[in-house]
């Protein structure tokens, strides 16, 4: 892995960040950039505990994500959705652009920034135990070779996956497998990202779609994604991807250069952001994943900036990554999808057809006004959505099986 490796004696920092994924590294980057706190990032050493390379996507709304330009693999000025009937809809989200970040490039960027900062430190170790102590928190870690380290800080921000998700009224999974393909002939338009292509067989429960991010005329990330209750087996994903690539996209001869696979919870669970007096949860573990879409990266950036501002102002708190109104709407949509009251492909295709693109992107990002949301709601199946909205507050929250981990665009 690229970046400094610190295995020196135990020390102290204002902030300890546990986990080197999108949430942990984004917060560390923000803290060293603003200089509001010294920070130590604790990442697992190389080996099975480190996740494989991942893909994160978001649309740049001009609110600071440009900090990571050198880690962006590709951008697309146009977005496209294919309806269940095969009809395409291409939209221009200007001034926004859809962007891809690969985790290796993002790690390289943030690790280099930590190395240049006198207040930044990267430690390769396994965090074993976290507990409150007077004036902060203490983390016991195991370094490569078995040496035990004890770190102390004023605050700990923990981005590691939860062992079990909180109880929820509804829990679906966004599960996927993607191929990075190279075709023999030029088959892709590098200016257009296909967000949802519903020209695939639909499961009996939930919905499925293809997802295509061109990297060059002959290279792209091609994914098969489902929103449903249970992940597929790898052979089932491979079969679905093969059908999509060959029968729907008609790619002709191609090779698969690498693959990625993951599962993201889509849940209306309440994620506590404070684990103890000095320990906070961030990222997916802290509720940053948008329940109805699975998007996380943009919310992580908002959360990181808000935490940096809170520390600067002397407030030890983690602001909510999504507003209550957005979460309430997501809870209704999840329930409507889970019960089959709405047709998922028709619902999402209709949103893109009937809503101005910039307004829809702001809606998906939780940045619309109540008036705008009311107008969008009137363009959805009003009867089923209203029935579900009246039902949701009375549903009990119950445990659900914990999914595997993974991150990708929807």
Task: Provide an overview of this structure.
This protein has 410 residues and is of the alpha/beta class. The protein contains 9 helices and 17 strands. The chain is globular and about 60 Å long. The two termini are 27 Å apart. The N terminus and C terminus are likely disordered.
| Chain-averaged pLDDT | 90
From the structure provided, what is the oligomeric state, counting identical versus distinct chains?
A: single chain
End-to-end gap? 27 Å
Task: Sum up the overall morphology in one term.
Answer: globular
- The radius of gyration computed from the alpha-carbon positions, rounded to a whole number of angstroms, is 21 Å
Helix content: 25-40%
| Amount of beta strand | 25-35%
Summed up, the helix count is 9
How many E strands?
Answer: 17
> Unreliable segments (pLDDT under 50, ≥5 consecutive)?
1-10, 405-410
Order of helices and strands: EHEEEEEEHEEEEEEEEHEEHHHHHH
Based on secondary structure, the structural category is alpha/beta
The largest β sheet comes out as: 7 strands, mixed
SSE layout and pairing:
Layout lengths: L11 E7 L3 H13 L4 E5 L11 E5 L12 E5 L1 E5 L5 E4 L6 E5 H14 L3 E5 L1 E8 L2 E7 L5 E11 L12 E13 L8 E6 L9 E10 L2 E10 L5 H15 L5 E14 L11 E3 L15 H16 L11 H16 L4 H11 L2 H8 L5 H8 L4 H10 L19
Parallel strand pairs: 1-2, 1-11, 2-8, 5-13, 11-17
Antiparallel strand pairs: 3-7, 4-7, 5-6, 9-10, 10-11, 12-15, 12-16, 13-14, 14-15
